[in-house]
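Pipeline run #58 for the internal structure catalog. This entry was flagged by the ingest filter as a single-chain record with no existing model, so it goes straight to prediction. Upstream metadata was stripped on purpose; only the residue string is passed forward. Reviewer on rotation: M.T. Logging verbosity set to normal.
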Amino acid sequence: MKTKFPLLLLLLFCVSLFGQKKITKKYESEELQDIRTIQIHLPKGYERDSTTNYPLTIVLDSEYLYDLYVGNSKLFSHTDRAPKQIVVGIEMAETRLKDASIDETRKSSLTADSRSFLNFIKEELLPYIEGNYKTSPFLTIVGNGISANLLTHFLRDDTPIFNSYVCLNPTFSPDISTHMQSYNLSKLGTIDNTYYFYMNDSQFIGEDKKQQVSALNTYLQTLNIKNFNIKYDLTECSPSNISAIGEAIPRALNKIFEIYSGISKEEFETKIKDLSPLDAIAYLENKYIEIDYLFGANLGIREIDIIAIESIIIDKENGDHLKTYGEMILNLYPFSPLGHYYLGRYFESGQNWRRALQEYRLGYGKMDPADPNADKFYQNVQRMLKKG
C-alpha cells in the first residue's frame, strides 16, 4: 500500500530578472512516491498585470529543453508572433527511461511507471499550476525522443487536456500508427477547441525511427480533421541531433501560434482575398475572438490587420461596407484616425462632401503633427474643401 505524501512544494530559489521570474521547486508527488524538480518561468509583466491569463506549456526533459523553449517563447512574444507563456519544466534526467517507458510485450502500451508519470502530470502538476498561476485554457506539452512518444498517450482521453503536442526527434513505439488509430481521433472534430500535433524528422534519429515518423504522418494526414492541425517537419539540414531540436522548436511555435500572428501574405492569399467585405470583416473579428479565447490575450485588432483587408472593403461591392468598417474601428480605437478615414472614404464615394470633410477633419485632428503621414492625411481635407 502506498504511503501518502503530502502535496508539499518547497521553494528552493526564485530569481527575478528584468521583470521575468524563474522559480525552481521540489514537488513531492503522491502519485510517483518521489520528489521531482520543476522549473516555472513567469513572463515579464506577470506580477504587475492582474487580469491577463497566459498559455501554459509543460516541457519534459527540462534539464536541456527548458531554457531553449523559454528563450524561443520570449523571442516570439517580443516580436508579437505568439503570446507570452508560462513555461513549466520537469526534470527527468535520472528517471527518463522509467517515466517514458513502454511495454513492448503488450503492443507498446505504457508501463505502470509511465502511466504513473502521465497521471502525475494530469492529476497533480496541472491542477497545482492552474490553481496557483494565471493560465489560459491553451495548453502545450513538449518532449524529445522517447518522451515525445509519451505525449501521444494524452490523445487517448475522450477530451484531451493539451491543445498542442510538440514531438522533437521522436522515438515512437514500433506500432505507433496502430496505437493512434485506436484513439479515435475523429472525436476531436466534435470538440469546440483547436489542436496541433508537431513532429520533426532528422537524419540522426535512425532509419527505423524515420519510417515510424513518416508512417504516422501519412496516417494523420488521412484523417482530415478540421481542428486538428498536423505539422511534419523535415530538418534534414541540421548537422546534429541538438541542432535539429534547436531548429524544430521555433518551427513548432510558428505553427502552434499561427492564428495569433498578424495576417501574413499566405493567410491573406489562402483565406481572405476571395471573401466578400462583410465576410472579411467577420473573419477579422473572429480571428481576434479566437485569440482572446485560446490565449487569454485581449489585443483588440492590430492596425496592421485592419489595413491588411482594407483593399477588400474599398474595392468590392462599390465600397458599400466602408461605413461598417469605419464604425467598427472607431469602436475599437476611438483615438485612432483610421475609423474616420474609412468613414470619410464612404461618404466621399457617395458624394456627400460635407460629411466626408467632417470625418477627414476629425481624423486629422487625432494625428500627431510630427507623424510623417499627417500631411498626406490632410490631403483628404484639402480635396473635400475643393469639392465643397
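catalog note: The chain has two domains: 9-256, 265-387.
catalog note: The domain at 9-256 is CATH 3.40.50.1820 (Rossmann fold).
status: ready for reviewer M.T.
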